[in-house]
Specification:
Shape: elongated
Radius of gyration: 14 Å
Number of helices: 1
Oligomer: single chain
Number of domains: 1
Low-confidence stretches: none
CATH superfamily: EutN/Ccml
Distance between the termini: 27 Å
Structural class: mainly beta
Strand content: 35-45%
Strand order of the largest sheet: 1-2-3-5-4
CATH class: Mainly Beta
CATH architecture: Beta Barrel
Order of helices and strands: EEEEEEEH
Mean pLDDT: 87
Largest sheet: 5 strands, mixed, barrel
Number of strands: 7
Length: 100
């Protein structure tokens, strides 16, 4: 699993039929200091994440290990919305602070 921040959405009306109804998000992976890493990833979202939220993503074959994704051609899946992240006894992220 990796930590990422949701920064956008992708809409595709024509796609592989097994992906019908799947929401796609653009995410930036986050380093241990909370900074975005170069590039981005497109991840399917089954948990209802929104722009600006920090999320847990699963990549590669692990992204196809849930009942909602096992028969779909996915390489990245949002599997959780993060409430807090602490590193070395320092709060790196809090969803509560973001919502203020």
């Amino acid at each position: 699993m990796q930590i990422a921040r949701v920064c956008g959405t992708v809409v595709s009306t024509h796609k592989e039929p097994s992906l019908t109804g799947v929401k796609f998000l653009i995410v930036h992976l986050i380093d241990e200091e909370g900074n975005p890493l170069p590039g981005y990833e497109v991840a399917a979202d089954t948990v209802g994440a929104g722009i600006g939220e920090w999320v847990l993503i699963s990549r590669g074959s692990a992204a196809r290990q849930t009942p909602s994704s096992e028969s779909r051609p996915l390489d990245a899946l949002v599997i959780g919305i993060i409430d807090t992240v602490s590193v070395d006894n320092r709060r790196l992220y809090s969803k509560r602070d973001q919502d203020r």
